[in-house]
Amino acid sequence: MDEDGMKEDGMKEEEEEEDGGEAMMDDQNHNNWGAGVYGRYLLEERLLPPAAGPPRPAGPEHNGGGLRGCEPAGTAGRAGAAGAIAAINISASTSKFLMNVITIEDYKSTYWPKLDSAIDQLLTQSPGDYIPISYEQIYSCVYKCVCQQHSEQMYSDLIKKITNHLERVSKELQASPPDLYIERFNIALGQYMGALQSIVPLFIYMNKFYIETKLNRDLKDDLIKLFTEHVAEKHIYNLMPLLLEAQSTPFQITPSTMANIVKGLYTLRPEWVQMAPALFSKFIPNVLPPAVESELQEYAAQDQKLQRELIQNGFARGDQSRKRPGEELYSGSSACASSRGYR
C-alpha cells in the first residue's frame, strides 16, 4: 500500500472515530434527559433548593418535548446500563430527594395535616379575611403526594373533610329562627362558593392526573354536588316558602340577598325553577316559556294583584291627574342640577 493509500485509510479511521464519538455523546444526552430531567423539573417547580441541581444543558427537553406533569421520564436508549448511570449528572441532595419516598404513614402524619389545616381556614373564612397560609407550600404538598401515588387517598380525605363541614353547616341552619334563616343560608352559600375558588386551584394536580383521567369527573363539580346533597336539598322545602313570603313583603330582605340565593339555587339544581317559576324568572333570564296570547289576561290579573298588595303595604299610587309617575323626581333632580350650575 502506497503512502497516499495509508493516509486515506488513516483519515477514514479518524472520521469513523469522530462519528462514533458524536453518536455516543448524542446517546448520552438522550439518556441524561430521560433520567435527569425529573430532577431539573423539580428545580423549576421550586420543590428543591437551587444548589441541589446541575446546570441545565440544552437537551431534548427544550425541543418541544418536556415533561408532562408527573408522568415518568423515558427509559434509557441504546447505551448500556453503565453508560446510562454515568450520564446521570445530578447532585447528592437531588439524588437523596428522589430516593426519599413518601410512605402512606408519611402522608398521614406530615402531608395531610398541612392540607387539613389549610382547608379548615378556607372553609370558615369570612369575605375579606386574611388567611395566614402559604399557597405555594400547599400546592407543593399536593404535587408531591400526586407524584408519590397518594391521589386516591388524598381525594378521599378531601371529600370526607368537606362533607363533615357541610353537615355541621346544615345542623346550624336547622337551629336558625325563621327571621334569620334566609340570611344565614345566604352566608353559608356565599362562604362555601368563595372557598371553592381557592380549594380547587390548590388541588389542580390531583384533579388533572386522578379525578379527570381515572374518575372522568371534575373536582369543582364534585364539591358543588356535596353542598347540594348535604345542605341545599335538606333545606329547600323550608327555604322556598320563606323566599316567596319575603318576595311578597317588600324590604323584608335585601334585593342582593334574594338575588344571590335564587341564582345560587339555580346553579345547584336548575330544575328547582319549577318550585317557584315567577320568583326565579325575576333573576334568571329566559327560564319561563315564551308568553302566549291566550294567557295575557292571566298576566294582567297577576299584575293587578301585585299592585293591590303594594297598596295594602303602604305604597300608594298618588294623584295621577297632576303629574306623571316619576315626574317630580326628574323635575327635582333638574332643579337641583341647575342650582349647582349643571346644564
Question: Which structural traits does this protein have?
Answer:
mainly alpha, 67% helix, 343 residues, elongated
Major sheet summary line: none
Average pLDDT taken over every residue: 73
How much of the sequence lies in strands comes to under 5%
Class of secondary structure makeup:
mainly alpha
Tertiary shape: elongated
Number of strands: 0
- Compute the number of helices: 13
Radius of gyration, whole Å = 34 Å
First-residue to last-residue Cα separation: 110 Å
Order of helices and strands: HHHHHHHHHHHHH
- Low-pLDDT regions: 20-69, 71-97, 318-343
Oligomeric state of the chains in view: single chain
What does this structure look like?
Mean pLDDT is 73; it is low at 20-69, 71-97 and 318-343. This protein has 13 helices and no strands. With 343 residues, the protein is mainly alpha-helical. It has helices spanning 3-44, 81-87, 92-99, 104-124, 135-147, 151-174, 178-202, 204-215, 219-248, 255-268, 277-281, 296-312, 327-339. 67% of the residues lie in helices and 0% in strands. Helix 4 runs parallel beside helix 6.
